């Protein structure tokens, strides 16, 4: 199997992806890694000696965070991001990973790879931390602002396959994000989606509220991209603020505070790791005709490594074929 990496996307490129590829290539010696980007900069990363299963494809062209996504994908075919998508589309790689411009990654997925049969709107599907540590797959997190009830049903079917083969949950519980748990709650689209999900073969557990979602009441939660993106960014902001506040309190001057910090430090590190987005890999772009994983723009080497691990599992379990079969079976 082959994983192609856009080494020029993200806040810490190319250092973070290069370090992660070195580690992943050693861990997954059965996998070929293609690193796309400025060869001089890639080789200039400290200790950037790769195992034999890593090759570098040079390009000087990069899609920046300020570029308009669709225009950039069309006008920069030699960019590291578009080249990675093209390799997947041409079956030269099984899955791509990038921490670059989110809109451009989604545009490249849709325009270069195309959509799976019977999928009208692909969805971005990150895993959000939950209080019980299990995590919840949320989709859509921003690809489609105005999803239809049928789109939400598609998301649920794709998520069920992905969750089964990548997150190792045999019969995932599917929830519909709503303003209340009652069957009659929600707008017209959500009410129709509730009916479709209730009649499906999925393990649908009904409507869930955002607070219940974070408690782990479902393994998958579906919603439109507008709501999902708000939920995602609120969760990220709350996490950052909470741990920043804890750090401030635990580093206050005073003997008692310092003693308490020393005693609690191991437990706090465990708690932090439970809610650390870096431990959950990237967000797959489900519904496109190729493996496409969006790593967080602020990914450090650890987050990059987890995204590459996720990509390896996606390819090893032939998840794209399973998604394709699941959507064809619905026709």
Q: How would you characterize this protein structure?
A:
This protein has 331 residues and is α/β, with parallel strands linked by helices. The chain folds into 2 domains: 150 residues, Isopropylmalate Dehydrogenase, CATH 3.40.718; 165 residues, Isopropylmalate Dehydrogenase (3-Layer(aba) Sandwich), CATH 3.40.718.10. Helix content is 46%, strand content 15%. The strands form 2 sheets. Strands 3-2-1-4-12-11-5 form a 7-stranded mixed sheet, sandwiched between helices. A 5-stranded mixed sheet has the order 6-7-10-8-9, sandwiched between helices. A hairpin with a 4-residue loop joins strand 11 and strand 12. Helix 1 packs across helix 11, helix 3 crosses helix 5 and helix 4 packs parallel to helix 5. The mean pLDDT is 90. GO terms for molecular function: phosphate:acyl-[acyl carrier protein] acyltransferase activity.
Ordered list of secondary-structure elements with their pairings:
Layout: E1 2-6, H1 15-27, E2 32-37, H2 39-43, E3 54-58, H3 69-75, H4 80-89, E4 95-98, H5 102-113, E5 123-124, E6 127-128, E7 136-139, H6 149-166, E8 174-177, H7 188-198, E9 204-208, H8 210-213, E10 220-222, H9 225-250, H10 255-274, E11 283-286, E12 291-294, H11 301-316, H12 319-329
């Amino acid at each position: 199997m082959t994983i192609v990496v856009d080494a020029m996307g993200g806040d810490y490129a190319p250092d973070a992806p290069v370090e992660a590829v070195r580690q992943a290539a050693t861990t997954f010696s059965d996998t070929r890694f293609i690193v796309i980007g400025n060869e001089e900069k890639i080789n200039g990363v400290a200790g950037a000696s790769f195992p034999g299963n890593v090759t570098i494809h040079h390009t000087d062209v990069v899609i920046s965070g300020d570029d308009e996504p669709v225009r950039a994908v069309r006008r920069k075919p030699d960019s590291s991001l578009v080249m990675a998508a093209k390799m997947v589309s041409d079956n030269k790689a099984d899955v791509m990973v990038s921490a670059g411009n989110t809109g451009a990654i989604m545009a490249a997925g849709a325009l270069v790879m195309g959509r799976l049969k019977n999928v009208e709107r692909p969805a971005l599907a990150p895993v959000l931390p939950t209080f019980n540590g299990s995590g919840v797959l949320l989709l859509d997190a921003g690809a489609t602002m105005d999803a239809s009830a049928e789109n939400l049903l598609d998301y649920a079917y794709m998520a069920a396959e992905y969750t089964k083969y990548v997150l190792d949950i045999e019969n995932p519980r599917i929830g519909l994000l709503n303003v209340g748990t009652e069957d009659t709650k929600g707008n017209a689209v959500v009410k129709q989606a509730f009916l479709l999900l209730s009649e499906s073969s999925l393990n649908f557990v009904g409507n869930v509220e955002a607070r219940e979602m974070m408690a782990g009441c479902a393994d998958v939660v579906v919603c439109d991209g507008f709501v999902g993106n708000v939920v995602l960014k609120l969760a990220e902001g709350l996490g950052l603020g909470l741990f920043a506040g804890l750090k401030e309190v635990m580093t206050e001057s005073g003997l008692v505070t310092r003693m308490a910090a020393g005693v609690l430090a191991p437990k706090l590190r465990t708690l932090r790791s439970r809610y650390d987005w870096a431990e959950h890999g990237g967000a797959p772009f489900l519904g496109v005709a190729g493996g496409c994983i969006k790593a967080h723009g602020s990914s450090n080497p650890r987050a990059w490594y987890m995204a590459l691990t996720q990509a390896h599992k996606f390819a090893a379990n032939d998840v794209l074929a399973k998604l394709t079969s699941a959507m064809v079976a619905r026709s």
